[in-house]
User: Which sequence fits this backbone?
């Protein structure tokens, strides 16, 4: 008998779920319009569900051009479900799909906030500095 209360749903989350998970997990807020425009462009996404009446408690997505460049984004787990290995499960799903479908030599990047870098290192990600430095701009 499987006592694991968590399951993985493949595909991008709904806009409502996306906005809620980002907000409660401490990621920056996004607008409904941004979610409606961006989520359909997900190359691969997963949502972690919990319970008999499954409720979304985590997510992660891969975005990119499908050939040369990919970025892992939106990795988050609600605070009450953190510390249970769900971030690791999300990353395993995303990296596994990249290894199955992305062309050889594809460049996969992500931005590691705080101690999340230790999780990402377990999946082979390395800091790019000093050779390159991540930069961003919000419009």
Assistant:
């Amino acid at each position: 008998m499987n006592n694991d209360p968590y399951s993985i749903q493949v595909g991008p989350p709904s806009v409502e779920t996306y906005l809620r998970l980002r907000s409660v997990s401490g990621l920056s807020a996004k607008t409904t319009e941004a979610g409606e425009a961006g989520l359909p462009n997900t190359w691969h996404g997963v949502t972690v569900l919990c319970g008999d009446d499954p409720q979304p408690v985590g997510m992660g997505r891969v975005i990119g051009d499908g050939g040369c460049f990919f970025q892992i984004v939106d990795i988050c787990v609600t605070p009450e479900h953190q510390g249970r290995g769900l971030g690791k499960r999300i990353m395993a799903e995303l990296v596994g799909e990249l290894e199955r479908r992305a062309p050889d030599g594809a460049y996969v990047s992500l931005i590691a906030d705080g101690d999340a870098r230790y999780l990402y290192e377990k999946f082979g990600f390395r800091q790019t500095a000093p050779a390159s430095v991540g930069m961003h701009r919000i419009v």
Observations:
- The first helix runs from residue 15 to 24.
- The first strand starts at residue 6 and ends at 10.
- The chain is about 30% helix and 25% strand.
